[in-house]
């Protein structure tokens, strides 16, 4: 329990209740206008030996607004009374317009010239689109995207300087030519009745939507979203090779609640990633017809809760190292997942969990393995319900599994509790695994779609910038702490709080009480400033969700957590509370950024050695918490998005997970923190579905500091001490990717841990590795199931209480190394005798 001050909270809130049951003050009047007033092309196909290094910079921000100074004297607006009363948050219905379409849109881009006049929200009908299914609307849609000088050539407004929501009201938008999008662009439809974008029968081109910015490498295509749409290619000839969406993007992106409609038995593809990328998450998608639903050519991905109906191949993997498919339904498909990549590229690992296949000829098609081959195409199937129509797994053209998989089936290298020290190659082993009931819903690991709050009307949503008498600016230069806290406390249990696009400076902790629902726009930023966050020996939390022991709803969507200055005592986000039901406490499409962008002094202050201590910890899930987190990127900048400043930044820690009540981490990535990316300490009941990390580029041989430096290990936060390393062993003293210290009921599906550099240069370790050790297990956790652990550039894949258990040399494959199953702390014992096509294993 760190980083909060109960006395301060009471001083800020006075006598306002923050309980879940809070309702609006019936004596407070709401003004009559309350409904609104209150409220060069790059191709990425590396082989297993390719030493790919990301592009070093984003778009230069040539129109920086120098009048913005986040370090100037802070403005503190005085408040004497509570905000006016708000309507009660009822059960809601869909018999009203979508609230986001009606609410006041006053988002800004604070750090560019004339940023206060920047148009963030762009309704395509304001640009001439008709949505009548007859008029060609492609030109109008492109005009909405390009407005304000956005467009080819980098637009001069930076990766973060030109945010835009391209909004589609309900309708059918005929398109005769492709539309090109750019970074910091979000295509959003009305979820109550999703609008349709349909390619005309005379469409000129082969792709409907290009969502990748053509002026940036795919690996730095960040901050992009598409949701609440129907994308339709049924008017295009079935014999034409056609792609609905090019989604060659990376972290900090969201693709959700989209239906891809294609002609049956056609040459069409729904989603393709032809130029690669370093993605994290897509989910709640539906595909009908077509040749391929998703053509995957990306480093890693979590793909969750998708359906494929009548699609020839649901998911075709051209390339991918760490792929987790969760809650997938294949119906009337020839192939569910094709992991053979046509004999080209490289598939590291695939996990298919909690899925269904009906009338599908082959659920997974992969390459053949034997006991001496590399671990490429490691397959883990966990809880698959399949009819007897076809084969479950075909390897090298030979069926090796048929029917359902009620427990866990493994094809790849495995380390069992009583197995050989060097592991064993499973050629199809069924493990009698177990799951914690705390993480399950209907026998599956719990998942939840990103909320749209479409059942609520606009007068149940508060625009935080338009509460009369309680100004909140979001301008990147005014301290908004006081009024944000007052409004959040007042809204709890009564209204959704909408943060229009902007940067909201805070000089003290923002308290998110039970009953809160927070929605941002183009990743609205809460940014720390001031001396309260400066003491690394006594860190303070910037955004705190609940107090320990509180129960209720606290949901956050589409927000960014960052810092405006070098603040070594800042914990960016801490979650203390749990929900009465799963998903009550949830975070969707919300990210962290330290440095690398305009609006933060870290961008310019941290350019030279030693790396500056910029932030203490990104995410802390305390023992009292239970949180569902989906699509989260915790990034300490390795390059500059908005300029050409060198970035030599040290954030102490990534995600510290201590929760015992239930934690779901789906499609998350934590990169470039100094001590660790993930640290599970005495945690219980944790599900991780695809995680991705990189260590700091400045660490290793020749680097300016050796971990824990420039930090000191803090035992109050269960920091690693690196006592396993010699005092001068720089490739040993590099950030852990993941530590698991004690705990129980831990389920990890798909880890992608990549080390590219020693001191921003060539890897100088043993046999060309960059880092000695990737992950460690400490203090004998119980019921730990770790599936598909992938690494690059690490000599030792896993240490167990200081003893090397898994090495790169013994587990070749994927981008460098892959282990399909780590079960040494699972309680599973293996029966060595062969039983048909599988070896059997059982729970001890």
From TrEMBL:
Residues 1-21 form the signal peptide. Keywords: Signal. GO terms for molecular function: polygalacturonase activity. CDD domains: GH55_beta13glucanase-like (cd23668). The keyword Signal applies. Residues 121-338, 467-523 form the Rhamnogalacturonase A/B/Epimerase-like pectate lyase domain. InterPro entries: Pectin_lyas_fold, Pectin_lyase_fold/virulence, QRT3-like, RHGA/B-epi-like_pectate_lyase. The keyword ATP-binding does not apply. This is Glucan 1. It comes from Hyphodiscus hymeniophilus. The lineage of its organism: Eukaryota, Fungi, Dikarya, Ascomycota, Pezizomycotina.
């Amino acid at each position: 329990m760190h980083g909060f001050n109960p006395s301060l909270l009471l001083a800020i809130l006075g006598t306002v209740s923050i309980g879940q049951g809070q309702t609006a003050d019936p004596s407070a009047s709401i003004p009559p206008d309350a409904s609104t007033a209150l409220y060069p092309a790059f191709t990425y196909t590396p082989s297993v030996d390719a030493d790919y290094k990301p592009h070093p910079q984003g778009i230069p921000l040539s129109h920086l607004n120098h009048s913005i100074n986040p370090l100037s004297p802070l403005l503190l607006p005085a408040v004497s009374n509570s905000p006016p009363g708000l309507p009660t948050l009822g059960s809601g219905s869909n018999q009203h317009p979508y609230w986001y379409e009606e609410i006041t849109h006053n988002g800004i881009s604070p750090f560019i010239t004339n940023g206060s006049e920047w148009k963030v929200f762009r309704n395509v009908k304001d640009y001439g689109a008709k949505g009548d299914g007859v008029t060609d609307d492609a030109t109008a849609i492109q005009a909405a995207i390009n407005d304000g000088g956005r467009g080819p050539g980098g637009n001069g407004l930076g990766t973060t300087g030109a945010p835009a929501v391209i909004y589609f009201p309900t309708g059918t938008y005929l398109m005769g030519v492709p539309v090109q999008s750019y970074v910091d662009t979000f295509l959003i439809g009305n979820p109550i009745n999703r609008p349709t974008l349909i390619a005309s029968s005379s469409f000129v081109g082969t792709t409907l939507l290009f969502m990748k910015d053509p002026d940036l490498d795919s690996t730095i295509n960040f901050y992009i979203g598409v949701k609440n749409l129907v994308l339709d290619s049924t008017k295009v000839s079935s014999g034409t090779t056609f792609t609905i969406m090019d989604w060659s993007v990376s972290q900090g992106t969201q693709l959700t609640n989209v239906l891809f409609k294609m002609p049956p038995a056609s040459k069409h593809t729904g989603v393709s990633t032809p130029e690669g990328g370093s993605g994290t998450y897509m989910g709640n998608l539906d595909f009908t017809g077509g040749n391929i639903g998703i053509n995957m050519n990306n480093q890693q991905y979590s793909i969750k809760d998708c359906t494929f109906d009548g699609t020839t191949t649901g998911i075709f993997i051209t390339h991918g190292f760490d792929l987790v498919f969760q809650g997938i339904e294949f119906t009337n498909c020839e192939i569910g997942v094709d992991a053979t990549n046509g004999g080209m590229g490289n598939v590291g690992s695939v996990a298919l969990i909690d899925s269904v296949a009906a009338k599908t000829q082959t659920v997974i098609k992969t390459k053949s393995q034997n006991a001496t081959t590399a671990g490429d195409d490691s397959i883990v199937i966990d809880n698959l319900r399949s009819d007897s129509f076809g084969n479950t797994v075909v390897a090298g053209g030979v069926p090796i599994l048929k029917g359902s998989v009620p427990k866990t089936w493994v094809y790849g290298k495995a380390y069992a509790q009583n197995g050989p020290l060097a592991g064993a190659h499973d050629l199809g082993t069924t493990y009698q695994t177990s799951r914690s009931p705390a993480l399950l819903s209907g026998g599956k690991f719990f998942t939840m779609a990103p909320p749209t709050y479409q059942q609520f009307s606009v007068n149940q949503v508060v625009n935080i910038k338009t509460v009369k008498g309680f100004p909140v600016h979001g301008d990147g230069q005014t301290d908004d702490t006081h009024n944000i806290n007052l409004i959040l406390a007042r809204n709890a249990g009564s209204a959704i709080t909408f943060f229009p696009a902007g940067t909201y400076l805070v000089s003290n902790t923002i308290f998110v009480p039970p009953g809160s629902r927070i929605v941002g726009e183009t990743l609205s930023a809460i940014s720390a400033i001031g001396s309260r966050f400066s003491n690394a020996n006594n860190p303070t939390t910037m955004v705190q969700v609940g107090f320990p022991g509180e129960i209720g709803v606290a949901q956050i969507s589409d927000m960014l957590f960052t810092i405006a200055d070098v603040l070594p005592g800042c914990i960016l986000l801490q979650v203390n509370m749990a929900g009465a039901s799963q998903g009550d406490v949830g975070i969707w499409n919300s990210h962290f950024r330290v440095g690398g962008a305009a609006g933060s002094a870290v961008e310019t202050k941290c350019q030279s050695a030693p790396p500056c201590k910029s932030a203490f910890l990104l995410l802390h899930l305390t023992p009292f918490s239970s949180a569902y987190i989906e699509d989260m990127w915790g990034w300490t900048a390795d390059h500059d998005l908005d300029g050409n400043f060198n970035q030599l930044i040290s954030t102490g820690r990534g995600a510290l997970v201590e929760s015992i009540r239930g934690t779901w981490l789906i499609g998350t990535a934590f990169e470039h923190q100094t001590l660790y990316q993930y640290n599970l300490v005495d945690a219980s009941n944790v599900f991780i579905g695809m995680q991705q990390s990189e260590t700091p580029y400045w660490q290793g041989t020749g680097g300016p500091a050796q971990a824990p430096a420039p930090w000191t290990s803090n035992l109050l936060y269960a920091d690693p001490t690196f006592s396993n390393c010699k005092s001068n062993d720089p490739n040993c003293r590099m950030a852990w990717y993941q530590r698991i210290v004690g705990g129980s009921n831990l389920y990890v599906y798909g880890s992608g841990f990549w080390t590219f550099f020693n001191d921003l240069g060539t890897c100088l370790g043993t046999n060309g590795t960059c880092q000695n050790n990737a992950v460690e297990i400490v203090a004998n956790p119980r019921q730990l199931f770790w599936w598909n652990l992938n690494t690059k550039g690490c000599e030792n894949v896993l240490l167990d209480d200081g003893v090397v258990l898994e090495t790169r040399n013994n587990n070749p494959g994927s981008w460098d190394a892959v282990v399909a199953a780590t079960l040494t702390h699972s309680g599973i014992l293996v029966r060595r005798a062969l039983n048909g096509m599988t070896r059997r294993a059982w729970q001890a």
